């Protein structure tokens, strides 16, 4: 036994009593979540309310079907049947969908699969009548893909939440945290407009006491953390934003005062555009940096939630406020980049060009890893300013942070000024 089993059991009893109708449980992998929340809870509910109808979803169709089959085996076991006699219908005993003689049962599929002809809960009954149970909706390997994360998050709003037969049918999500904007993060930040009750069970408490010492001692958990800090922060501690990320470290960057800048730097601006000003989407990133004597100096790196007309009007005053001459503005040719570049060129206010290098075609992590040796080698300098804190916070949480525009901007700057430039900048 472990104390977290009891916490989960009490949470699920509140679900059964309809005290919790939207619930999220975050806990480490292999700590008993599927056994408790899917197999045992469904069996227990059907013993108490034999007409209950459940939908069970997971990232893998095979995994969901295996869970369904084992739940059915529990119900058909001699131990269960000795206390609660319950026959399963002969014509509805597949892994995907099965029913008992009272109409209760379970429909199981992948979180991204079709749900047809079945709803969770029972209309017209007093109290609990079933639930939607979502177990690990996002595959760990897909956590760094914005497309895959959005697919799961959007599917909750567009499909999953509509598969309840009554307004008070509970929807419960149990998962390890994988990314700041995984389904848990998305819903807890208001993505569905619903109020979610959250049970968070990190592998270590505030006193470094293990949640499940039978599974992992403190020393074992510390070894996991040392080996992979951002995986540990998300999957084990349920806070997918470690103080130090897995790619770049904050202390790799040199910070200097503006007065320490060498003379004669030719400054380049880099813009990573976004389409909208809505904070749920990526902001536009703007960085001004330059090369001197084999080092890359970043004068400023900021992000703004601006649509194209407002961004166009913002850029020149931003440059003017830095007090230096910008020789060239480079725009990433993605999102709003092409439109912004055309607009700036048409106004003939500055020298503008698209970034057209191999980096554009790389993934964010590939760009970051290619740039790492230059940063770790002490060749990137930040000019001290108010922007440093937000910049370094994002650096420290990549690739788990929701936004990463400063990563891209810095990687593009390193590629241009350090990878594609001589070691010594002779002027």
Provide the descriptors you would attach to this structure in a database record.
elongated; seven-stranded mixed β-sheet; 20% strand; alpha/beta; 14 helices; Nucleotidyltransferase, domain 5; Rossmann fold; 427 residues
Structure description:
With 427 residues, this protein is of the alpha/beta class. It folds into two domains: 3-201, Rossmann fold (3-Layer(aba) Sandwich); 250-419, Nucleotidyltransferase, domain 5 (2-Layer Sandwich). It has 14 helices and 15 strands. The chain has helices at 3-16, 33-48, 61-76, 78-83, 146-158, 183-188, 218-227, 229-236, 308-322, 337-347, 358-361, 364-376, 388-397, 405-419; strands at 22-26, 53-58, 88-93, 97-100, 105-110, 130-135, 171-175, 197-200, 254-256, 266-272, 284-292, 295-304, 326-331, 352-354, 380-383. An eight-stranded mixed sheet has the order 3-4-5-2-6-7-1-8, with helices on one face. Strands 9-15-12-11-10-13-14 form a seven-stranded mixed sheet, with helices on both faces. Helix 2 crosses helix 3 (61-76), helix 7 (218-227) crosses helix 8 (229-236) and helix 12 crosses helix 14. The protein is elongated and about 85 Å long. The protein starts with a helix and ends in an 8-residue tail after the last helix.
């Amino acid at each position: 036994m472990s104390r977290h089993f009891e916490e989960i059991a009490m949470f699920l009893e509140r679900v059964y009593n309809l005290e919790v109708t939207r619930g999220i449980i975050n806990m480490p992998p292999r700590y008993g979540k599927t056994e408790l929340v899917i197999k045992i809870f469904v069996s227990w509910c059907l013993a108490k309310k034999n007409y209950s109808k459940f939908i069970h979803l997971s990232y893998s169709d095979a995994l969901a079907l295996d869970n369904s089959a084992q739940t059915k085996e529990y119900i058909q076991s001699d131990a269960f049947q000795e206390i609660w006699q319950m026959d399963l219908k002969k014509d509805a005993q597949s892994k995907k969908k099965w029913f008992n003689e009272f109409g209760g049962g379970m429909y199981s599929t992948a979180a991204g699969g079709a749900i047809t002809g079945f709803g969770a809960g029972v209309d017209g009954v007093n109290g609990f009548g079933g639930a939607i149970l979502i177990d690990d909706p996002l595959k760990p390997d897909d956590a760094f893909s914005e497309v895959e994360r959005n697919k799961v998050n959007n599917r909750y709003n567009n499909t999953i939440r509509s598969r309840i037969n009554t307004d008070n049918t509970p929807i419960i999500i149990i998962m390890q945290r994988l990314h700041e904007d995984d389904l848990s993060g998305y819903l807890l930040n208001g993505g569905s407009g619903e109020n979610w009750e959250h049970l968070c069970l990190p592998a270590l408490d505030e006193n470094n006491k293990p949640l499940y010492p039978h599974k992992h001692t403190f020393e074992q958990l510390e070894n996991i953390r040392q080996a992979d800090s951002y995986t540990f922060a998300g999957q084990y501690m349920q806070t997918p934003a470690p103080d130090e990320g897995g790619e770049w470290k904050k202390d790799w960057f040199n910070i200097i005062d503006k007065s320490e800048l060498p003379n004669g730097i030719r400054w380049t601006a880099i813009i990573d555009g976004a389409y909208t000003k809505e904070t749920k989407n990526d902001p536009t990133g703007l960085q001004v940096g330059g090369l001197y004597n084999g080092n890359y100096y970043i004068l400023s790196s900021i992000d703004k939630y601006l649509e194209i007309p407002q961004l166009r009007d913002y850029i020149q005053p931003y440059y003017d406020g830095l007090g230096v001459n910008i020789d060239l503005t480079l725009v990433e040719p993605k999102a709003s980049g092409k439109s912004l570049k055309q607009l700036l060129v048409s106004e003939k206010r500055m020298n503008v060009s698209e970034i057209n290098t191999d980096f554009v075609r790389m993934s964010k992590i590939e760009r970051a890893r290619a740039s790492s040796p230059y940063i770790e080698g002490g060749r990137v300098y930040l000019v001290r300013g108010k922007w440093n804190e937000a910049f370094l916070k994002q650096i420290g949480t990549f690739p788990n942070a929701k936004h990463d525009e400063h990563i891209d901007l810095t990687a593009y700057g390193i590629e241009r000024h350090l990878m594609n430039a001589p070691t010594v900048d002779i002027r």
